[in-house]
Prior knowledge:
Two copies of one chain form a homodimer.
Chain A: H1 2-15, E1 21-30, E2 33-42, E3 49-55, H2 63-74, E4 78-81, H3 94-105, H4 108-124, E5 128-138, H5 140-150, E6 157-161, E7 179-185, H6 193-205, E8 210-215, H7 238-255
Parallel strand pairs in A: 3-4, 3-5, 5-6, 6-7, 7-8
Antiparallel strand pairs in A: 1-2, 2-4
Helix pairs in contact in A: 4-5
Amino acid sequence: xxxxxxxxxxxxxxISAEAKLVTKTVEYKQGDTTLEGYLxxxxxxxxxxxxxxxxxxxxxxxxxEENRAVMLAHLGYVAFCADIYGxxxxxxxxxxxxxxxxxxKTDRALLRLRVNAGLDELKKNELVxxxxxxxxxxxxxxxxxxxxxxxxxxxxxxxxxxxxLDSPAPADGRNIKCxxxxxxxxDDPFEKPEDLAAFxxxxxxxxxxxxxxxxGGAVHSFTQPTADGSLPGAKYNERADKRSWQDMKQFFGEIxx
Amino acid sequence: xxxxxxxxxxxxxxISAEAKLVTKTVEYKQGDTTLEGYLxxxxxxxxxxxxxxxxxxxxxxxxxEENRAVMLAHLGYVAFCADIYGxxxxxxxxxxxxxxxxxxKTDRALLRLRVNAGLDELKKNELVxxxxxxxxxxxxxxxxxxxxxxxxxxxxxxxxxxxxLDSPAPADGRNIKCxxxxxxxxDDPFEKPEDLAAFxxxxxxxxxxxxxxxxGGAVHSFTQPTADGSLPGAKYNERADKRSWQDMKQFFGEIxx
Lengths: 257, 257
């Protein structure tokens, strides 16, 4: 009996195998600042579908985020990579990246404006079901999607992948309306224990619907194949990368019902 | 095109809907002690399949664990509820439960013998693929499955649901061969922060493949519908229950490949 099930499922997989990927850069604005994002969706899917905003790590929008967008497109989502820094502002070294990221980490109000602009751009897309929207972010992008939530933005959920969890305004947790999933490298040296504890208390005090997953053996940047360990404390971890991706998919399955 | 896929999948679901549940109590031994466990599997599945050992909370083996066994049976596993306390040793109050559980928490060597006896009994079952075995435990049972791992037992993985994470012998983490998933209520008052930190360090020091998930808003016993809050700090949390069950299923999907 189970064999018949397997055959049907296999047939179903073959029939739905044709993808029709559509990608494009998208110029948009926040105030007077021109931003350049990246859109991806799979035209083999029909009708409105959930939208996922992707926020980049400290080097700015790179092919890393574009690849994640393509992966999400093939899962049936409209994916939009936000640009936090500005069109043509793409750090060329970790030093430049640190300078850029610090601008926004020390001006959370501006960071919230920038990421909300990306969310608005995503929601404008006619293929996006505005009632099923999430945001994911990597590293600096993880911090950013948490700030998106702290701004009281209207979306279903956020996922931070090895994002910085510190906050100059922990009371802002009370603004969070969406569900929160934090994927954290258990050995991430960039996350001070006191910041992690403060984050948990922020979530707790504000009765946020939150979950935090610690991946043993993983440090910072665990989802990024180019993180080769040359920057101490930041290294790709295939196991944690695959698991956190599955955890995100499961989270989407729940929040997009 | 996607509509054809949907029809095939729907047809597949109808064909595989017939379950043939088989359950029975099973007497077995550890040393001179007679134990009584509970076995469940679904005869609609054919051939060998993964086995899952279930270890009870402090009240002993009850219908709670039996229900979990039935749920696992319908997912295609052979489920065996271990008996740690002994045949006919079934606490009738939380006071008796505390006394029983303490016997084993203060004699981890005996606890390891008892749970290994349950694992052996599960593996003996001809329907169980001995290369695909896991153990899950609730509360006292969570502590127990971690002790099973610390005994160096040969199985693919363990899942602790709101288990006590303290250990009198943290160096024993070095014996752990299997993968470890800990599902923890973020507001569980029964878990001292120092024990949680010590557990993480044990896993870290021994290079265990571990993951810890904190469910915001959940306290102790979050998977148990009868935990109504009359015992302070122990209360059912439907959201955390459903999510942790999904997390376990996802974990099984990975470890049973």
